[in-house]
Amino acid sequence: GSGDGQGQILQRFPEKDWEDNPFPQGIELFCQPSGWQLFTERNPPTFFVAVLTDINSERHYCACFTFWEAVESAQPQSHPRNGEGEEEEEEPSSPVQPAQLFAPKSLVLVSRLDHAEVFRNSLGLIYTIYVDGLSVSLENVIGNLLTCTIPITGGAQ
After folding, report:
1. H or E element: which one contains 23?
2. Residue, of 127 and 21, whose pLDDT is higher
3. 1-5, 34-38, 145-149 — which is least confidently predicted?
4. What is the average pLDDT across 134-141?
5. Which CATH number fits the domain that encloses residue 10?
6. Which among 33, 37, 67, 84 counts the fewest CB atoms within 10 Å?
7. Is position 67 within any domain?
8. How many domains, in total, are found in the chain?
9. Domain annotation covers residue 107
10. Residue 106 · residue 66 · CB < 8 Å
11. What pTM was estimated for this model as a whole?
């Protein structure tokens, strides 16, 4: 009813933790620092990178690309009433159509490398494939992105 909710991880790669690089706990809270809220307008996509430091003082660069998807309201709203508690005369028994609501959905990339532009481009590609409904499996896209060679800073191209 209030429009507030909790984030939920729908899919992750790899599906199981790597021994030397565990999955960051609470990443769903990190994606929406102001909380998971529904809005009546579709917001433009956003992108940010933050640095998380683990218990061993190792940095993890977390790139977050958030976009907004329409959701269907599960609660029908009743027709508004006037100040005297009586229903208005025009169509008193018809329910009011609920406003269209939009929920945030985030794509997150966690890396030990600091390459914000590569993160933005990679997440933008995944977003484009998802929005355009292309018949490419997300697993194949992720696999192809993970096999890309990224030159070290200051190294040969």
Report:
1. none
2. 127
3. 1-5
4. 82
5. 3.30.450.200
6. 84
7. yes
8. 1
9. yes
10. yes
11. 0.72
